[in-house]
Amino acid sequence: MKKEFFSLFGFATLSATLLIGCAEQSGNSTASSGKPDSTYLANTEPQGALPVGEARESSQDKQDIVLVGRIGGSSKPFIDGLAAFTIVDPKVPYCSEDEGCPTPWDYCCEQNQVKENIATVKVVNTKGQPVSQDARELLGVKELSMVVVHGTAQRDDDGNLSVLADKIYVKE
Question: Are residues 11 and 63 in the same domain?
């Protein structure tokens, strides 16, 4: 009886291990390959890009827009679970690590300038729905990456600028 129990227990343990291994394998097959998704990346830089600060002043709601900025503006510029992030006008200097700033993309030295020079970028699919994948994986970007964004301007009641982006060009 003991021998049968241990054989059955061993078989159950082996089966569970194999199932877990298969589940992990199938999970990896749907994971990002580490390559950006060319669906949302522009091959060439869109022309006529406005710096974020200028776009905040001049763009209208639902207007076609192209703007340029650097990913940042807070310690966590990426939005979890979505291909979305904030960008800051290139004219605003970000803090350097030499100044004792461990997260230079939060612009801790220039917070007053950031307020009028920041925009939110939301990558959307062809139906206008937000893409539910991390922007870093989807686009191959990181904090302080310089990007040119093409999309549709969106304004909230406070005048904040968002862009429903259909193409992103990564400058650096």
Answer: no
Distance between CA atoms of 95 and 87, rounded to whole angstroms?
15
The residue assigned the tokens 């993309």 is 105
Q: CATH code at 81?
A: 2.40.50.200
Indicate the residue type of 47.
Q
CA distances from 3 to 7, 14, 90 (A): 6, 16, 72
22 and 65 share a domain? no
Q: pTM of the entire structure?
A: 0.77
Q: Which residues contact 132 (CB under 8 A, 6 or more apart)?
A: 81, 82, 83
Do residues 89 and 125 both lie within one domain? yes
d(CA 45, CA 117): 21
> Distance between CA 92 and CA 100 in Å, rounded?
18
- pLDDT score recorded for residue 34: 62
- Residue pair 83/123 in contact (Cβ under 8 Å)? The answer is yes
Average pLDDT along the chain, 172 residues, taken 10 residues at a time:
42 35 32 70 96 94 96 96 96 83 86 92 96 95 97 93 97 82
Q: What is the domain count for the chain? A: 2
